[in-house]
Amino acid sequence: MSTYDPAALECLAAIVEEGGFERAAQRLNVTQSAVSQRLRALEAQVGSVLIVRSRPLRPTTAGQLLLKHTKQLRLLRADLERDLQELAPSAPGGGREDERISIAINADSIATWALDALQGLVRERLPLEIIADDQDFTQEWLRSGQVLGCVTTLGSALRGCKVVPLGAMRYVAIGAPDLAYRYLPQGLTAYNFRDVPFIAFNRKDDLQAEFVARTFGLKRVALNHLFVPSSEGQVRAVAAGWGVSVVPELLARPLLADGRLVDLAPGQALPVQLYWHCWNLESEVLDALTAALTGAAARQLAPPV
Predict the structure, then answer these.
(1) Is omega for the bond preceding 197 within 30 degrees of 0, making it cis?
(2) Are 200 and 245 in contact (CB under 8 A)?
């Protein structure tokens, strides 16, 4: 089996992660010509094109395999760093900036419970990179080898990975008191939900329609949407009277308690089951990430069904 130059592998990863040759060169502190040369040498060794020169750039199937291999090497180095830190606690810690440990987490988890879960690892100088995406799509980052773990709604384990149930995030329908008094005096019903705009995260976000459909027993739901690509931003937009939204109860709870928001469907909540997927490897870093996320989820989320 061929041995690949670690510098060339990190060059490939930098091109994919930074989205281009120029930014990859800046990150690696080399010339753009050197980046191209390293990639060409790696492609010659593999005997296959590794990057599709499209907009945006994307790795080929062979490129994805080498990218996954590079991430695994980073994980091994991160494990070594932890072991060395235990032997010599006073030694400088943390990996290089270009050897980040990447995981994909949905934005609502980032806004509520996940950052607290990871705080201890960050304090230990783990070079962490969090990639945000919709909870129904984060597994694609893991499937392509671009991250080593993800929080997702997918319950079955991906190939070469293990899966751990985290719990259910409860979503509730919220609105500003003035808007509710004017347009929804009876709360949200099967007959008035079209009278107000629903604020969604982005076009991938189907929680608004799913909540309405499940709550009122409807098969098909068409909503008037506004898009605010931030979990906290959605709540702020609702409080400002832009419309209504379906958001994590954890995020809305303080504003519901002090009356700045109202629950438009009391007693109704949409539970979204979340799972942690990661590569099925023996790794102290992976074990630490798994323990941190599952521990925080057990404290913050509803128990898994």
Answers:
(1) no
(2) yes
Distance of CA 139 to the CA centre of its chain: 9
pLDDT score of 289: 95
The answer to whether 14 and 35 are in contact (CB under 8 A) is yes
Cis peptide before 92 (omega within 30 of 0): no
Position 91 scores a pLDDT of 45
In this predicted structure, what is the pLDDT of residue 3? 82
SS3 197: coil
Q: Global pTM?
A: 0.78
Q: Which two tokens stand for residue 106?
A: 């949905």
pLDDT of residue 198: 97
205 and 246 Cβ atoms separated by less than 8 Å: no
Q: Which residues of the chain have pLDDT under 50?
A: 90-92, 95
Whole-angstrom Cα distance, residue 53 to residue 176? 47
- For residue 41, give the nearest of 9, 71, 67 by alpha carbon: 9
State how far the Cα of 93 lies from the Cα of 131, in Å rounded to an integer. Answer: 23
Type of residue found at 87: L
Residue 296 has a pLDDT of 97
Q: How far is CA 262 from the centre of its chain?
A: 28
Is the separation of the CB atoms in 39 and 62 below 8 Å? no
